[in-house]
């Protein structure tokens, strides 16, 4: 098994290609669609880099895995399947339906928007072992950042999305709809930290604190000893207090609203309106004057 990473500087997102060099079977995890909110325009720089690598290695992309409905970048999963890898299945944890229900209300999406997860090719279950050609991985639900977060374990390599980050950056925030710091604590301590200490953890983002070079892989042992938010001896109450206090100071992600309404539909934008133009909805909150 080989792992190739791609780093999107604009959103600090890590995309991974996991592949079997012998069979050339591959999966892609958390791919990025470039999006400029000022011009409201998509572009394909990240896609082009990813596709070039896949073609160079002559890989057979079996699945595109989403760790959750991201709030900080748009997913390119649908573009990849429509234009490049038509046989690949877009997969996500089955709890995505909870996120769809919540954001259908927030965005006042039309009745035709389904909340059964059917926009994805496959909904994955907790503890399920999945075959993607010659590759096999285990699904481990790790909610808390969102209720639908899932991590994927390939051998000794765990892809955790936004549950935890490199030890010097801590954990994902828990203030999105149905996020829960207590649930995240249990996901980390009772699921991730109970894996063998040598298990490699591949993070979904690296924000390079202090301007340090990019880092994207740690281990269970390192995280238990050094993670600044959850160590092996961190208590539930102290983490909930810390996470709740910190989250109250954080600004909304720059691409929150474009990202979520696209990502809950596996990368599908809302249908074009009568004038042929596709729009992104932004709920407005009025301040008090």
Topology of helices and strands:
Blueprint: E1 2-8, E2 13-19, E3 25-29, E4 32-36, E5 41-43, H1 45-57, E6 60-65, E7 74-75, H2 77-83, E8 89-93, H3 96-106, E9 122-124, E10 129-132, E11 135-141, E12 150-154, E13 157-159, H4 181-192, E14 200-202, E15 217-219, H5 220-226, H6 236-247, H7 256-263
Could you characterize what this model shows?
It is a single chain. By secondary structure, this protein is α/β, with parallel strands linked by helices. It is built from seven helices and 15 strands. The chain has helices at residues 45-57, 77-83, 96-106, 181-192, 220-226, 236-247, 256-263; strands at residues 2-8, 13-19, 25-29, 32-36, 41-43, 60-65, 74-75, 89-93, 122-124, 129-132, 135-141, 150-154, 157-159, 200-202, 217-219. The strands form three sheets. It has a six-stranded mixed sheet, with helices on one face. It has a six-stranded mixed sheet with strand order 10-11-12-13-14-15. A hairpin with a 2-residue loop joins strand 12 and strand 13 (157-159). Helix 4 packs across helix 6. The longest helix has 13 residues, at 45-57. The N and C termini lie far apart (59 Å). The mean pLDDT is 97.
TL;DR of this structure?
With 289 residues, this protein is of the alpha/beta class. The chain has seven helices and 15 strands. Helix 4 packs across helix 6 (236-247).
Q: From the alpha carbons, calculate the radius of gyration and give it in angstroms.
A: 18 Å
Secondary-structure element string: EEEEEHEEHEHEEEEEHEEHHH
Low-confidence stretches: none
Assembly category = single chain
Q: Which strand-content bin applies to the residues?
A: 15-25%
Number of strands: 15
Helix/strand/pairing class, anyone? Answer: alpha/beta
Count of helical regions? 7
Biggest sheet features: 6 strands, mixed
> What level of helicity do the residues show?
10-25%
């Amino acid at each position: 098994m080989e792992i190739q990473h791609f780093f999107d500087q604009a959103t600090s997102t890590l995309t991974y290609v996991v592949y079997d060099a012998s069979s050339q079977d591959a999966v892609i995890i958390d791919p990025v669609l470039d999006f400029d909110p000022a011009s409201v325009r998509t572009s394909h720089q990240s896609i082009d880099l990813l596709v070039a690598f896949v073609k160079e290695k002559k890989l057979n992309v079996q699945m595109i895995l989403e760790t959750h409905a991201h709030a900080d970048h748009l997913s390119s999963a649908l573009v990849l399947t429509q234009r490049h890898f038509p046989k690949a299945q877009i997969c996500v944890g089955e709890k995505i339906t909870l996120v769809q229900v919540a954001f259908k209300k927030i965005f006042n999406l039309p009745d035709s928007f389904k909340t059964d997860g059917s926009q994805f090719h496959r909904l994955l279950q907790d503890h399920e072992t999945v075959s993607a050609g010659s590759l096999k991985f285990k699904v481990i639900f790790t909610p808390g950042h969102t209720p639908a977060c899932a991590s994927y374990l390939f051998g000794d390599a765990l892809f955790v999305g936004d549950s935890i980050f490199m030890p010097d950056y801590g954990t994902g925030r828990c203030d999105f709809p149905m996020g829960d710091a207590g649930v995240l604590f249990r996901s980390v301590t009772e699921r991730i930290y109970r894996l063998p200490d040598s298990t490699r953890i591949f993070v979904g983002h690296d924000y390079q604190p202090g301007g340090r070079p990019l880092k994207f892989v740690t281990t269970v042992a390192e995280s238990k000893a050094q993670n600044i938010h959850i160590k092996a001896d961190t208590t539930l109450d102290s983490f909930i207090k810390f996470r709740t206090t910190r989250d109250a100071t954080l600004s909304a992600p720059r691409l929150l609203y474009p990202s979520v309404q696209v990502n809950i539909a596996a990368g599908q934008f809302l249908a074009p309106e009568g004038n042929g133009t596709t729009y992104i909805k932004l709920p407005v909150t009025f301040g008090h004057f």
